[in-house]
Amino acid sequence: MDVHNVTADAEEFTCNAYLVTGERPALVDAGTMPGVVDVIGDHVDDLDRVVLTHQHHDHVGELDAVLDAFDADLYAHADHPRRTHALADGDGVALGEESFDVVHTPGHADDHVSLVGERTLFSGDVVVYNDGAFDDGSFGRTDSPGQSRERLIESLEALLERLPDSVTAMYAGHGDPVPDDESVRAVIERALARAERREPKYD
């Protein structure tokens, strides 16, 4: 399974949008980068599905353009006018040649889900490697209306419970991938410990 960050060259604020190639080419989040359709087209001729971790603007800004260009199915936890498949905790979804378990991970967003495979985690914004607040294990903001630090803490705990020890790669909605010499589980544990301090993430 090859994973490409198709928004890596963005000049505007966006999430990391990940193209997973293989038998069922899939995009995890769409981002806000104009021209992302062309970047996807550089790698694949067809896109089977778009899977949303959540529907904050930085994750869906170019969603309509992607769906229009590729006539792809849309998988999402929350309602969306173009959703073709609803995601619920415990569901399975295929990306490329691999199957991923859907884990509902609210706190940063009510509709947030993470995708857990045998070797790979797509964590959205519930946990990231670095984001300007922490360098080796951080978590999504919980200081806006509708967000909850307590629910995010519960989500990180659930993610750790359901994460196979075989997972060695984490692709987050922001920041860098986890380095090869780092443990994904350890990164999540550090993020959880920092979230449990219940201190403001940013000054």
UniProtKB/TrEMBL annotation:
It holds the Pfam family Lactamase_B. It comes from the Archaea. The keyword Cell cycle does not apply. Residues 14-174 form the Metallo-beta-lactamase domain. InterPro entries: MBL_Glyoxalase_II (IPR051453), Metallo-B-lactamas (IPR001279), RibonucZ/Hydroxyglut_hydro (IPR036866). One of its GO terms (molecular function) is hydrolase activity. Its cofactor is Zn(2+). PANTHER family: HYDROXYACYLGLUTATHIONE HYDROLASE GLOC (PTHR46233). This is MBL fold metallo-hydrolase. The keyword Electron transport does not apply. Keywords: Hydrolase, Metal-binding, Zinc.
